Amino acid sequence: MLKISHLSKKFAGLVVTDDLSLNIKVGEIYAVIGPNGAGKTTLVQQISGVIRPDHGRIYINDQDITDLPSHRRAHLGLARSYQVSSLLLDFTVMENVILAAAAHSPGGWRWFRPLLSEDAPRQAAAECLSRLGLAAMQDRPLRALGHGERRQVELAMALAGVPRILLLDEPAAGLSPTETQQLAVWLRQLRPHYAILLVEHDMDLVFGVADRIAVMVQGRIIADDSSSVIASNPDVRAAYLGEDQNIKAGAL
Amino acid sequence: MSKIFYRSKNAAFAQTKLGAILLLLILLAACLPLFTQWGDAPFVLRFASRVVILALAATALNLIMGFGGLVSFGQALFLGLGAYGVAIPSHLGFENGFLHLALVMLASGVVGAMTGMIALRTSGLGFIMISLAFAEMFYYLFVGMKNFGGDDGLSILAGSRFFAATLANQTFLYLMALAILLVALLACHLLKNARFGMVLRGAAMNKMRMASLGYDVRRYQILAYVIAAMVTGIAGMLYANLMLYAAPSYLAWPMSGNLIMMVVIGGLGTSIGPLLGAILLLLGEEILQRTTEHWMFWLGAMILALALSGKTGLIDVMTAWRAIWQKAPLRLGQPGK
Ligand SMILES: Nc1ncnc2c1ncn2[C@@H]1O[C@H](COP(=O)(O)OP(=O)(O)OP(=O)(O)O)[C@@H](O)[C@H]1O
Ligand SMILES: [Mg+2]
C-alpha cells in the first residue's frame, strides 16, 4: 500500500533520512521507534508532502507520489495526525471533523448551503465521532478541550476522510495511562482496515499493538522486523531499548 | 426536554425579532432618498451613497481578510480599476453602462487572477507587501497615462447609462448600490458557513492541516481573491459615478488602509462588520471634520481605544455590552449578600 524506496533528506548537512526503504500493507501496524531527533517526524512530513526528499521515491499503490502536493496525496487515501496537535482552534469538534470528511465527499463547491447541513459529510463525521466515542463533545469549541481530548479529535480527523493509509505521529504523546490504553484498543480495531505507520515513544503501546517495528537512529533504520524479533534483538537492546527492562517484560 | 424546547422557542423568537428589525432598517435605508428630498438635503444622500459603496468594497475585502486571514493592502487597486472602467470609456464617448460593467468585471477579474496567483504564493507579511506593491504599480500606471488625465484624474461627463436610467442620477445610484450591498452581505453571510467559507476560514487558522485533509487551499484562496477583486471593481464603478471623477488616488494605499480599517473596526470575520465599520469610520470622519481641525488625531484615538479594549471589533463590543445589559436586571433582582 505505502512503499518508500531509498529516501534521503539532509538539513544543512545533517542527515535526517538516510537511504530509507519500507513497505506497509493494509492490515498492518508498522511502528517506527527511535531516540529524539532520529528523523521520525521528518519521515512523516516527507510522506505527507510537507517536506520534499532529496532522493528516493514514495509510492501509494504503486503510484509515484513523490512530486504530488499534500492535498493530492490525501485524495489517494493518505491521512495523518500530528505530533503537536494541529487543529482548527476556532471551530467546534464537529466542524473540525466535518471539514475532514467533506474533503472527500462530492459536491466540491457548495456556495451557500451550510456545511453542517450537508448530508454526506455530516453523516461521515457523526459516524466517525461515535465510533471513537466522542459524540458527546461534538459541539464544544476546540479551544475548550484539554490536551487528551484534542489528541482524540486529531485521530478522528485522520479517520473521517476514510483513508487507507494512516500516519500517526506520536498519538500517545501526553496522554494519561487510561487514555493510552483506550488508544491501544482503537488501534487494534482499526488495524484490519488500514496501513498504519505508527511513530511512538511509548514502548508499551508499540510492543502491544505493532506487527512490525523499525528502529531508527540518525535517519537510518538499523533493524526492521516483527515485534517479537525486535524485542529480542541484542543490537536493538544495546542501541535503544538497553536500560528499559520493564518494557520487554510487559510486552513479551 | 422542556428546557431545551423552551430555549429553542426563545431562540426562534429572537431570530424573528432580529429579522423584523433588519427588515425595518432595510426599508428605512431604501426610503432615504425620499427623506432627503423632503428635507432638501442632497448631501446626506451623497454621503449615504459613499458609505454604501465603500461598505461594498469593505465587504469584498472581508471575504479574503476576515474569512481568509489574508490582509490585502492593495484592495484599492480594484476600486481604481472599477472607476477607470467607467471614466475611460465615457471619456472616449461610450456611455453604455453594460459596456462599463463588462469592462470592469473583465479588468478586475483578470488583474485579480494575475496578481492573486502571484501574491498568494506568499502569506502573512509577504502577502501584504506584494498586494501593496501591485496596487502601487497600477497607481503609477494611471499617473503615467497622460491622455487619460494622468495625475489630475479624469472627469466623467455622463455616468453609466442603463437603458433610460443613468447612474449619474443620485437616487438611482444610491438604490443600486444599496441593492448590491445587501446581496453581497447576504452572500457573505451564507458563504461563511458553507463549504467555501469554512475552507477559507479553516485555511486562515491552519493552512497545513487543511492541505493534509485534502483541500487545495490555494485554489480556494485565489477564487476568493478574484471574487473580492470583482466585487470591489463594481464598488469602484459606483464610486466613479458618485464622484463623476476617477483619479489615481483611488488606487493609492490610504484608500486600501481605509478599507482595512472598516473591516477591522466592524469586526473581523463577521458578515455585517464591514458595513458597521464603514458607517462608523465615515461618520466619525464627517463629524470630527466639522467640529475640530485635528479630526485625524481624534479618529486615530478612537481606533486606538477600540484596539486597546481587547475587543476584535464593533460587533464584539456590542455583544459585550449586550451581555452586561442583560445581566444587569438579574443582578438587581437577586437578594444582596
Ligand atoms: N525544518 C528543519 N530544518 C532543519 N533541521 C530540522 C528541521 N526539522 C527537523 N530538523 C532536525 O532534524 C532532526 C530530526 O528531527 P525529527 O523531528 O524528524 O526527529 P524525531 O525523530 O521526530 O524526534 P522526536 O522524537 O523528538 O519527535 C533533528 O535533529 C531536528 O533538529
Ligand atoms: Mg517527532
Give your account of this protein's structure.
The complex is a heterodimer of chains A (252) and B (337). Chain A has helices at residues 40-48, 70-75, 93-102, 119-131, 147-160, 177-190, 203-209, 227-232, 234-241, 245-251; strands at 2-11, 14-24, 28-33, 55-60, 63-64, 78-81, 165-169, 195-199, 212-217, 220-226. Chain A has 252 residues and is of the alpha/beta class. Chain A has a 6-stranded mixed beta sheet with strand order 6-7-8-3-9-10, sandwiched between helices. A 4-stranded antiparallel beta sheet of chain A has the order 2-1-4-5, with helices on one face. In chain A, a hairpin with a 2-residue loop joins β9 and β10. Chain A starts with a strand and ends with a helix. Residues 242-252 of chain A have low confidence and may be disordered. Chain B has 337 residues and is mainly α. Chain B has a single domain, classed as ABC transporter involved in vitamin B12 uptake, BtuC. Chain B has helices at 2-38, 42-67, 76-91, 97-119, 125-144, 170-193, 195-205, 207-213, 217-243, 253-266, 273-291, 295-308, 314-333; strands spanning 154-155, 161-162, 165-166, 245-246. The radius of gyration of chain B is 22 Å and the shape is globular. Chain A binds chain B through residues 48-50, 69-71, 74-75, 79-80, 82, 86-91, 95, 99-100, 102-104, 107-116, 118, 157, 161, and chain B through 187, 190-191, 193-196, 198-199, 201-202, 205-206, 208-217. The structure holds adenosine-5'-triphosphate and magnesium ion. The site of magnesium ion has 3 residues of chain A, from α1.
- Secondary structure class of chain A reads alpha/beta
Q: How much helix is in the residues of chain B?
A: over 70%
Low-confidence stretches of chain A: 242-252
Bound molecules: adenosine-5'-triphosphate, magnesium ion
The tally of domains of chain B stands at: 1
Spans where pLDDT lies below 50 across 5 or more residues of chain B: 1-5, 329-337
Task: Indicate the mean pLDDT of chain A.
Answer: 88
What structural category arises from helix and sheet content of chain B? mainly alpha
N-to-C CA distance of chain A: 29 Å
Oligomer: heterodimer
Question: In one word, what is the shape of chain B?
Answer: globular
- The total of beta strands of chain A comes to 10
Helices and strands of chain B, in N-to-C order? HHHHHEEEHHHHEHHHH
CATH architecture term of chain B: Orthogonal Bundle
What is the number of helices of chain B?
A: 13
Cα-atom Rg of chain B, whole angstroms? Answer: 22 Å
